[in-house]
Amino acid sequence: MKRLQEKIQTFGEHLKNVHREAGKLGFVGIMKLLWKDLFADRTLTQWLYLLALSSVPFVLEFTNQEASHDWLGLFASWTGIVCVILVAEGRASNYLFGAVNSAIYLVLALNKNFYGEVLTTLYFFVMQPIGLYVWLSNRINDQGDAEESHFEAKKLTLMEWIKYLVLTALIWIGMGYAYKSIHSARPFRDSITDATNGVGQLLMTGLYREQWIFWIATNLFSIYLWWGKSIHIQGMYWVYTLNSLVGWYQWSKAVKKEVA
């Protein structure tokens, strides 16, 4: 009980620090900080990587032979790709693109009656402001500088691995039975991404590099799920998979720097 009270007290203090820093910056200062987070300290290779991967949705759309354009799917794919690239670079601005992407993807999943994707996307949408707070809190309370773009990547211990794998299994089974109760045709298939996405988002919020393992599992299964349904969403998940490999590499380097 005492430990819980200490955590609540610490959370309150950190939240006040974030709020105070935001007040100091003001609206203009926050916009400048967002601009810096999006564009500063990116190498030529990173710029080329961003432009190449984020152009995939446009290539798919304008080389497709469909009679009409799928603008909603195009924008969902583009915002999602930009979001995961920003995550791999450790930029807090990923949460802005994540919120927009979650809102659009929710509409697409509802239209396809993908129950698991709907709940997962709602979870993602709620986690965007929470994740942004945690990342900003890390910069302000742990690093002492809201404008610091460096992020402190961590890695799971053996016991933490066991905890999160158990949590993954519990979410998969629990949501599978939940979908079965509402007569879903593929309850335990639909619940797979609930588990991998749910745990992946928790690890991402906590700045753990192992998030990328869960993202890779999610992406590969989602490619299968959307096969033949939407070329944009398929393309988005193929790009996600590539970026997850890059993200694992970059965050592993960041972990080694922290250890050193």
TrEMBL record:
Subcellular compartments: Cell membrane
Q: Name one GO molecular function term.
A: nicotinamide riboside transmembrane transporter activity
Which superkingdom?
Bacteria
Q: Does the keyword Cell membrane apply?
A: yes
Is Metal-binding a UniProt keyword of this protein? Answer: no
Predominant cellular place of this UniProt entry's protein: membrane
The record, for InterPro entries, names:
NMN_transpt_PnuC
Q: Where are the transmembrane segments?
A: 71-88, 121-140, 161-179, 212-228
Query: Keywords in UniProt for this one?
Result: Cell membrane, Membrane, Transmembrane, Transmembrane helix, Transport
In the record, the note on similarity to other proteins reads: Belongs to the nicotinamide ribonucleoside (NR) uptake permease (TC 4.B.1) family.
Matching entries from NCBIfam families are given as: NMN_trans_PnuC
According to UniProt, the name of this protein is Nicotinamide mononucleotide transporter PnuC
The scientific name of the source species is Streptococcus australis ATCC 700641
Q: Gene encoding this polypeptide?
A: pnuC
